[in-house]
Amino acid sequence: MPSNKVFVLRIGLSVLALASATMISGAAMAQAAAGSPPPGQSPPGAGAAPAAAAMKNPFPPFHMIGNIYYVGSAGLSCYLINTPSGNILLDTGYPDMAEQIEGNIQKLGFKLKDTKLLINSHAHIDHGGGMAAIKAATGGKLVVMAGDAPFFESGGHNDVLFGDRNLFPAVKVDRVIHNGDQVKLGGVTLTAHLTPGHTPGNTTWTMVTKDKDGKSYNVVFFGIVTPFPNTNLKGTPAYPGMGADWAKTMRVIPALKCQVFLGSNSSFYDLEKKHQELLNDPNAPNPFIDPTGCKAFVDRGEAAYQKLLTSSPQAEVR
Known about the structure:
Layout: H1 4-12, H2 15-18, H3 26-33, H4 49-56, E1 62-65, E2 68-70, E3 79-83, E4 86-90, H5 98-107, E5 115-119, H6 125-128, H7 131-138, E6 141-145, H8 149-154, E7 175-177, E8 182-185, E9 188-194, E10 203-210, E11 216-222, H9 242-252, E12 260-263, H10 271-280, H11 291-311
Helix pairs in contact: 5-7
């Protein structure tokens, strides 16, 4: 279990800082989206290093609900979805987290080679940077939304927000998908919802799982669906359609049926608190069944978007 000191530090991070790691601090993302570089274009580890370290801190792998297991770090969520025909891994964290994620999978009693499919939320170093290493270790097939496929295959080259500032090991995409496409394995179906803006192929995944009570629940794994305060909805030379993409995302996410609320960053859905509740009383209702928390999260994203529209009203594209 991570120390209380680490927990306090992580809770104190804002949504902006949640995207931070190495050079990808929340401030850097926001400024990049606004068309300006991160402060000083500082090298890896400068300034954002403590936040990055906190995000990478180990977290005990555990069974969340149904056939879904947590194998991520303290700040960056990674999920293993178990099926009778093998497993599906969603997100991999930073390149240097690959060994940690692989170890978490094995601690839960699963074999790496049983990971048949690799899926992701988006092609940034802090969520997909370890994909190449984990693909090599597992032999799994990588499935990526069309808008982000070029960035995985180039290792983040010419990223629409960061240019070449946050490169990671390139990895071959085995299947390119589009909005509404499904990934199926062993009777489990995940549906890919294009929720662009943070990246052109930012993906929110949905599926159905059964809890120990035998009931079925709609699960949502949100990508980054809240715009940062300096996001330029008028678009940038690298991403001219940013405003239209964010408008699309704001239409998509309220319509998703969400009972089990999960996401690409652990603080989005209070991972630590809910994990502790599971430990305190395994027989209590599963805390990850949280439609109220899900609606509050979606509402906060819409509020952030509306605030941006107020500052640049001509940017709205509905």
